[in-house]
């Protein structure tokens, strides 16, 4: 049974950016290379100085050793300047010959020359340097090969000593063998330690990179949280605060300061007391607090504390404060309550439809048999109120039935300018508002995908609202059609209505909200839902337009629609019959 491949995580120490790891490895390699090059250069200077001192003091009479040392110094300097830093690889190569081979040759020649001259200086300990170079900058095979080469050279030197005279060379062979074993051990241990240190350094870099990534993600998450987060120390000093917390605190004095004190503002005293209570007891606490700042209104917050370092542990204790705006909590409760009311209203509307239809039919039959004007007036009142109830029921049912769909395949494109003119003209005729309404001509080529009946419903609702809040003057209601850009078109319904109250504007598109007691409060909500169903949007703004030649400020509702591809041919006909007719009620 095949096992699934493990999923890598950003925060896994074994998973990191390969490019970053290669960059760090290159830096580490460069430091090791420079260290060995500096050591070889210093050793070359020491050898030249030593041989020169021996020659001047008469201890040694060989100029050859001085020349060899000087040549080694020059070769070391050239290799430091000319050779590009890189690993030695798995086998012997030119770089190995320029570094390790030069050391082996130089130290071997010096050892052989001092043996023949009878000098007491032993150069064999210097072989440790090329072994270290091969072990750290190369592989295990290269390090052991270098140790083997050094051992062979020492055995060759012992053999030459034996051939020169009948002296006992057993100590020489024994020393060469023992030194060779030591060099093999140095090569193996050095390579093992170097490899382990390199792996540890790589894991440390990976852990550091993962920790840095996690810290950045945590900071991003905290910065974007809608709830406020404060990190407070034992003295009441705020070490960190996200934007939501700074906004909830309400003071402009410390908005730009990264660190501030809760004792700076009297209104923050409840938070300071809650923090001290948590640190004093070592427990988490939760309560509702109110923050006041001078003339500003009170801010009701729900505060929760958590201790980052509980008492009894080493180090400084920190308290994390989580703040929630009570207004947002209440808004969520209202939304849930409104959703429940919507479901209940839908159920009630279904139950009302049948008796309402019976009342309407009975009233119509009764009206046919009546001749008294007073009684007919009563039946007319019943008919009008029944129609009003029917409209409210249909609005409630329509809220639950507005669902998104793929308009590309279901709705044919229409000419926006022609459809808007036709709908506005029909509305103005039916409501006797020809003098009030002015429709400004737009681009005739603009096409959109929007069901004509739905567009009629949206425009009529917006025009009715405008008519309700305007006077009988000329150009008090104006409609503008324009192409905002290559992808979007807009239809704006402007009226010289008075500005809305802030409390009304804030809940303008919410269901069951209306400033008119006779309205169901579903008109604008359904208009926005129908627009979103067709990938459009509906917004409100306060703008200034020209009315009767004079600039006038008024309310404007803007519908932004997505334009169709120019290759489509929008229909400018009535478009009352379409391949697909949605069921609204």
Task: Tell me the number of strands.
Answer: 13
Q: Estimate nothing, just give the exact number of structural domains.
A: 4
Q: Give start-end ranges of low-pLDDT stretches.
A: 1-16, 572-585
- Average pLDDT, rounded to a whole number, is 78
Q: Number of helical runs?
A: 15
The coarse overall form would be elongated
Strand numbers in spatial order across the main sheet: 3-2-1-6-5-4
Largest sheet: 6 strands, antiparallel
Give the proportion of residues in helices: 40-55%
Structural class: alpha+beta
Could you tell me the strand content as a percent range?
Answer: 5-15%
Radius of gyration, rounded? Answer: 45 Å
Helices and strands, in order, run as HHHHHHEEHEHEEEHHHEHEEHEEHHEE
Give a concise summary.
The chain contains 15 helices and 13 strands. It has 585 residues and is an alpha+beta fold.
Question: In terms of topology, how is this protein built?
Answer:
Blueprint: H1 18-56, H2 63-82, H3 94-117, H4 128-137, H5 140-164, H6 170-224, E1 228-232, E2 237-241, H7 243-249, E3 260-261, H8 269-281, E4 286-291, E5 299-307, E6 319-325, H9 326-369, H10 373-401, H11 407-410, E7 414-415, H12 416-430, E8 437-440, E9 447-448, H13 452-468, E10 477-482, E11 488-495, H14 502-506, H15 523-533, E12 537-547, E13 550-562
Parallel strand pairs: 8-10
Antiparallel strand pairs: 1-2, 1-6, 2-3, 4-5, 5-6, 7-9, 10-11, 11-13, 12-13
């Amino acid at each position: 049974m095949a096992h699934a491949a493990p999923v890598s995580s950003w925060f896994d120490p074994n998973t990191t950016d390969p490019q970053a790891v290669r960059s760090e490895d290159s830096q580490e390699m460069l430091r090791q290379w420079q260290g060995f090059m500096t050591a070889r250069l210093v050793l070359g200077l020491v050898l030249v100085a030593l041989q020169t001192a021996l020659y001047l003091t008469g201890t040694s009479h060989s100029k050859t050793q001085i020349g060899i040392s000087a040549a080694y110094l020059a070769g070391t300097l050239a290799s430091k300047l000319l050779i590009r830093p890189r690993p030695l690889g798995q086998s012997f190569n030119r770089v190995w010959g320029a570094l390790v081979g030069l050391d082996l040759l130089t130290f071997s020649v010096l050892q052989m020359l001092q043996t023949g001259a009878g000098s007491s200086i032993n150069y064999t300990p210097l072989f440790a340097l090329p072994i270290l170079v091969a072990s750290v900058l190369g592989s295990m095979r290269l390090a052991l090969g270098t140790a083997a080469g050094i051992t062979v050279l020492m055995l060759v030197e012992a053999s030459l000593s034996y051939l020169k005279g009948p002296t006992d060379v057993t100590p020489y062979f024994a020393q060469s063998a023992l030194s060779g074993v030591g060099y093999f051990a140095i090569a193996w241990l050095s390579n093992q330690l170097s490899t382990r240190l390199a792996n540890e350094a790589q894991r440390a870099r990976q852990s550091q990179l993962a920790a840095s990534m996690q810290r950045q993600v945590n900071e991003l998450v905290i910065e974007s949280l809608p709830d406020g987060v404060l990190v407070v120390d034992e003295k009441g000093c705020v070490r960190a605060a996200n934007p939501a917390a700074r906004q909830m605190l309400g003071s402009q004095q410390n908005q730009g300061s990264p660190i501030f004190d809760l004792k700076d503002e009297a209104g923050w005293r409840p938070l300071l007391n809650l923090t001290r209570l948590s640190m004093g007891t070592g427990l988490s606490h939760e309560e509702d607090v109110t923050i006041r700042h001078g003339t500003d209104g009170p801010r009701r917050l729900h505060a929760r504390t958590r201790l980052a370092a509980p008492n009894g542990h080493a180090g400084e204790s920190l308290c994390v404060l989580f703040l929630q705006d009570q207004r947002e909590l209440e808004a969520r409760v209202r939304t849930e309550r409104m959703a429940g009311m919507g479901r209940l209203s839908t159920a009630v509307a279904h139950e009302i439809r049948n008796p309402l239809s019976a009342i309407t039919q009975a009233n119509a039959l009764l009206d046919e048999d009546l001749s008294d004007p007073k009684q007919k007036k009563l039946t007319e009142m019943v008919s009008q109120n029944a129609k009003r109830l029917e409209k409210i029921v249909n609005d409630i049912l329509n809220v639950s039935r507005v669902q998104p769909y793929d308009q590309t395949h279901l709705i044919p494109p229409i000419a926006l300018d022609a459809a808007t003119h036709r709908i506005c003209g029909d509305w103005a005729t039916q409501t006797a508002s020809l003098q009030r309404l002015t429709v400004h001509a737009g681009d005739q080529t603009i096409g959109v995908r929007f069901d004509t009946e739905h567009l009629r419903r949206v425009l009529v609702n917006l025009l009715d609202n405008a008519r309700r809040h305007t006077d009988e003057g000329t150009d008090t209601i104006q409609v503008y059609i324009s192409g905002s850009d290559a992808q979007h078109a807009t239809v704006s319904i402007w009226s010289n209505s008075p500005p809305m109250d802030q409390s009304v504007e804030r809940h303008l598109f919410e269901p069951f909200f209306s400033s008119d007691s006779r309205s169901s409060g579903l008109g604008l909500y359904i208009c926005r839902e129908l627009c979103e169903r067709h990938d459009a949007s509906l917004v409100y703004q306060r703008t200034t337009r020209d009315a009767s030649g004079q600039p006038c400020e008024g309310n404007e509702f803007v519908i932004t629609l997505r334009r169709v591809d120019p290759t489509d041919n929008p229909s400018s006909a009535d478009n009352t019959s379409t391949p697909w007719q949605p069921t609204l009620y």
